[in-house]
Amino acid sequence: MSGRGWSVLLLSIALIAGSVFLWFRREGTPPQVQAPEAILLNAEGGSVTLVLDDEGSGLRSATVVLVHAQGEETLLAKEWPGSTVSGAVRRGQPLTLEIEIDVKRLPRSVENARLRIDVRDWSLAGGLSGNQTRLDIPVRIDRKPPRIAVSTGLTYVRHGGAGVVVYSLSEEVERDGVEVGDDFFPGHALEGSDRRVAFYAVAAEGPAQPEIRVVATDGAGNVGKARWAVVVNERVRPTANVTLPSSFLQDVVKGLATAEGIDTTDLEFAFNEINTKLRARNEATIREVLKDTAPKQLWEGSFQQLPNSKVTSKFAEKRTYFVSGKQVSKATHYGYDLASTRAAPILAANAGRVVYADDLGIYGNCVLIDHGLGVTSLYGHLSQIDVSPGDRVKRGQSLGRSGASGLAGGDHLHFGILVGGTYVDPLEWWDPKWVASNVEQRLTPFRP
What pTM was estimated for this model as a whole? Predict the structure, then answer.
């Protein structure tokens, strides 16, 4: 081949290679941007998460600008290293950016804005400026917290007792209810009314005068708060010293510890493990189950005590346990122990829905009934269970038979009432006068 022929061949190869290079470098796929479809902020502002990616030429630049009627503010102007020849130095890995929006810097008249996002890659497309992805995301700024109007008047509640409050809200919210100190009790729609209702409890143990208030959080995160007149009365808590006989350790503790995988070499140690750690796990299970509460009242009137039963242990009793005169453990008894005949029929204290019916550690065979609006009754130490989760039960319907399953020294029923995740004194709920004045009279004026 002549020299001219070689030149033409080499030129052709170069043109083909250049064309292939340009074809690849002018790839037309724009960067990928993951962002929310809309942004809602409160007076504190917030952050927006963006995920950027470009599998072709790689990311070149990104700008984020907040645009509103009073002007605009650049929140991000970022460039990444690369060249028009080789593309981005870093590519093939998604990049996550947190964009802070400081609402306090904006004029208070600004309620609506747009977040303009402009992302380019290192492609030769677009006159060497690269492929572009542009997003305009609407931003709404809500600085006003929900307004709460409490309809309930002066309320007296005891430590270890329950209460109810009726209130209304100025807008739809994400979360509302009652705070008692650090405890939260969700609100629910009051049937036949435009108002809301929340049952709450004051723990038997805690501050003498906990802060009690209705709270509501809207979609922007604004929090409205309202108080009403609540008087918290102290409770005198009974105490008891309990001596554990060796037969109890051998017959009850050893079997329960073995079933729960607790070392039985030292039965006093095993009892303390059951009375503390296993008890805590069981209570955690109960609180998880109680999240499934009906949004309406399922019960009617007062609750009934187990018929023909004798009280052998009261609510909030502080117990200290001894073996041969040595203290081995402590616990608070959050319920009533009720003794009747052996294998006595256990009846539902009021109408509701069974949400648990199975073994539950220290409580043995246990049934939990959801009565709606966060009110639950507990039946422990049964020898037999005759209901299943999901069953609807009436007041006085049989749930099973009393027994001595779990951490029990003899045949009896452990009965408890919980409001939200807090144990309260069943004596209140057994009392028709208390229920009438503290529940029914509070709700009736707002029902059709």
Answer: 0.85
